[in-house]
């Protein structure tokens, strides 16, 4: 979000917009969290909470700055230079996309770390792929993966006849009936077209 804010600041006329880049501080907090997560002592867990609080605070600062810049663009206080209009417009659209996602991440992080609520509705696992879900694999070395399950139906000679993105973590036994129905529908529609 800081990069998008910087692009808007560079592309606006007579902009006195001062963008604070928290990348270095964020990197330090992430490293602290990684070190603290490896220790299981009470002091390590307290350090983990404190580092998360600082990281959440940095994220809230960037979110507030992004909301203020979007409001200034909407009110006409910031005006894009003609040669940088597309760059500013694209950065504004990206901020509008990421801002609600970041707000959800802040809420779920506060609930998980500060209130110890491990179950959170509509959990976001990735800002770049917000549709991702946890896929339980049940393997000892890799119990969970992230993404979506996709069913790809093939016919003879490897031709793909159909596909479907699963809403949850469905097993193979739940996938074959919809695959068969889709294949039969494809066969019936092709035979009815061929008869005419």
Descriptive notes:
It is a single chain. With 196 residues, this protein is mostly helical. Helix content is 58%, strand content 10%. It has two domains: 2-114, Four Helix Bundle (Hemerythrin (Met), subunit A); 133-195, no CATH class. Strands 1-2 form a two-stranded antiparallel ribbon. A two-stranded antiparallel sheet has the order 3-4. Helix 1 packs antiparallel against helix 4, helix 2 (23-37) packs antiparallel against helix 3 and helix 3 runs antiparallel to helix 4. The relative contact order is 0.09.
Q: Any chance you could write out the topology, listing elements then pairs?
A:
Blueprint lengths: L1 H10 L11 H15 L4 H34 L9 H30 L18 E4 L7 E4 L2 E5 L5 E6 L6 H24 L1
Antiparallel strand pairs: 1-2, 3-4
Helix pairs in contact: 1-4, 2-3, 3-4
Key words describing this protein structure:
single chain; 196 residues; mainly alpha; Four Helix Bundle (Hemerythrin (Met), subunit A); 2 domains; two-stranded antiparallel ribbon; 5 helices; 4 strands; 58% helix; flat
């Amino acid at each position: 979000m800081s990069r998008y804010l910087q692009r808007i600041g560079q592309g606006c006329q007579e902009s006195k917009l001062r963008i604070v880049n928290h990348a270095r501080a964020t990197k330090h907090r992430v490293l602290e969290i990684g070190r603290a997560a490896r220790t299981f002592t009470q002091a390590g867990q307290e350090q983990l909470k404190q580092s998360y609080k600082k990281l959440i605070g940095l994220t809230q600062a960037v979110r507030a700055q992004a909301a203020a810049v979007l409001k200034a663009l909407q009110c006409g206080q910031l005006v894009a230079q003609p040669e940088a209009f597309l760059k500013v417009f694209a950065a504004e659209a990206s901020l509008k996309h990421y801002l609600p996602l970041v707000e959800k991440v802040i809420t779920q992080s506060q609930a998980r770390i500060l209130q110890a609520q491990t179950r959170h509705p509509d959990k976001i696992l990735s800002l770049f792929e917000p549709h991702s879900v946890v896929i339980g694999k049940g393997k000892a070395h890799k119990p969970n993966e992230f993404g979506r399950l996709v069913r790809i139906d093939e016919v003879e000679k490897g031709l793909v006849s159909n596909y479907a993105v699963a809403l949850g973590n469905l097993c193979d036994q739940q996938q074959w009936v919809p695959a068969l129905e889709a294949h039969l529908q494809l066969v019936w529609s092709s035979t009815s077209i061929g008869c005419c």
